[in-house]
Amino acid sequence: MPTITFNAFSFLQKKLKKKNIEYANAIMEIADGMSANDLLSQIGLSKIDVEVVFINGKVAPFDTLIKEGDRVAFVPHGTPGPYRVFLGFKNKNNI
Fold this sequence. Notes:
The structure is a single chain. By secondary structure, this protein is of the alpha+beta class. It has one domain (about 5-85): Roll (Ubiquitin-like (UB roll)). The protein is built from three helices and five strands, in the order βαβαβββα. The protein has helices at about 10-20, 35-40, 80-85, and strands at about 5-10, 25-30, 50-55, 60, 70-75. Strand 3 and strand 4 (about 60) form a beta hairpin. The N and C termini lie far apart (about 25 Å).
């Protein structure tokens, strides 16, 4: 089973804490062939909760397969405007 480092930001942390799921630099084992979308489901979140997924520091589509050693982060809707461009997810409706 692949091992990843997982982070969630802002109000997602509160949701995951209620479920006793680690959310800050958490080392997680996932199933082979798991996508970011699958990980969302596994931890009880949905695309309604998460606007963007980062894999290894870059914005990635939700159907991206996660591999051994990847760093995965979920960012909720509502990240401040100017930072959206710098982070690379302004108007990413296709993600």
